[in-house]
Write a structure and sequence with these properties.
single chain; 243 residues; mainly beta; Jelly Rolls; 2 domains; 34% strand; rod-shaped
Length: 243
C-alpha cells in the first residue's frame, strides 16, 4: 500500500531530513547499495523505506571490511582482541619488528645456570666424574647455546703423563668430547709439579626435541695426574635457548 509522507507521521521538513540522511549513508560506509534511487516528487512507501534501512543494516551488521574504514581511522589497540584471538604472525610483515619493540630478554625462551663442583679432585680411579650440571632447561626445540665460566686444572707430578677427557651431555646424549694430553719432564729435569688450565667447552646445538633438558660436563682422567677445581670459586655454566 502506498502512503504519502504525511501518512507516516512525517512533516515535509522531517521527511526531507530523513531522506537526506539515508542518501548520505554511502559516504559513511562504502559499498552499501540502495535498492531504490529517489526522484523529486515521489511518494514514500513503507516498503521502500524499510528496504533502504535493510540495505544499511545488512552491510553494517557483520559485513564491514577494510574498504569501510578510513586510512586515518587510527583504531586503538584496546579495540583489538586479546590472546588467543589477537594479532597472528601472518598479520605481521617480514622484518617489521625492530629491537625497540622487544621486551628485555625477549630473545630468550629460557635459561639456567649450573654451578661448578667446588674442591673437585679427580684421579684415574675416580672414573667419569660430573664437573657441572645445569637445572632442567625447558625448550621449544630452538637453538641452545652454553657459556662456560669455569676453568679446572690438571696437576702432574714429576715424570707425569695424563690424558683428560671432557665430555658434554644433553640428558643422556653425548654432544661432544675434548681430549687433552699432558706430560712433565723426567725426575732429573723436574723441579716440582706442573699445573695446566682446562676450560669447559661451549654449547652450540639444537635440542633433540622440545621439552625439558639437562646439560652436564664430565671429566675422566687416565694416568697419574689429578683434575682439580677451585674450592672458593668453582665457576658456573649458563645454558639458554634462543627464541
Amino acid at each position: 500500500m502506498r502512503r504519502r509522507l504525511i501518512d507516516l507521521g512525517l512533516t515535509a521538513v522531517g521527511a526531507a531530513a530523513l531522506i537526506g540522511l539515508v542518501k548520505a549513508l554511502p559516504l559513511l560506509a562504502a559499498f552499501i547499495t540502495f535498492p531504490k534511487v529517489w526522484t523529486s516528487g515521489e511518494i514514500l512507501t513503507s516498503s521502500d523505506l524499510n528496504a533502504e534501512f535493510a540495505a544499511v543494516s545488512a552491510q553494517v551488521n557483520g559485513n564491514l571490511d577494510d574498504t569501510n574504514l578510513s586510512a586515518s581511522a587510527a583504531i586503538k589497540g584496546s579495540k583489538l582482541a586479546d590472546s588467543p584471538n589477537g594479532i597472528t604472525t601472518t598479520k605481521l610483515n617480514d622484518l617489521a619488528v625492530t629491537h625497540g619493540k622487544l621486551a628485555v630478554a625477549a630473545t630468550l625462551t629460557d635459561y639456567k645456570v649450573g654451578i661448578g663442583a667446588a674442591s673437585l679432585s679427580v684421579i684415574q680411579a675416580s672414573g667419569e666424574t660430573t664437573w657441572v650440571q645445569t637445572p632442567a632447561l625447558t625448550t621449544r626445540g630452538g637453538l641452545v647455546i652454553g657459556f662456560p665460566q669455569l676453568v679446572g686444572q690438571v696437576l702432574l707430578p714429576c715424570n707425569g703423563l695424563t690424558s683428560l677427557m671432557v665430555k658434554l651431555y644433553e640428558d643422556a646424549t653425548q654432544l661432544g668430547q675434548l681430549n687433552y694430553s699432558f706430560a712433565t719432564p723426567t725426575a732429573t729435569g723436574c723441579t716440582g709439579g706442573t699445573q695446566y688450565p682446562v676450560p669447559a667447552p661451549s654449547i652450540y646445538n639444537h635440542p633433540l626435541a622440545a621439552g625439558s633438558h639437562v646439560y652436564k660436563i664430565t671429566v675422566t682422567v687416565a694416568g697419574n695426574g689429578t683434575f682439580k677445581t677451585d674450592p672458593t670459586d668453582p665457576g658456573q655454566y649458563l645454558v639458554a635457548e634462543l627464541s
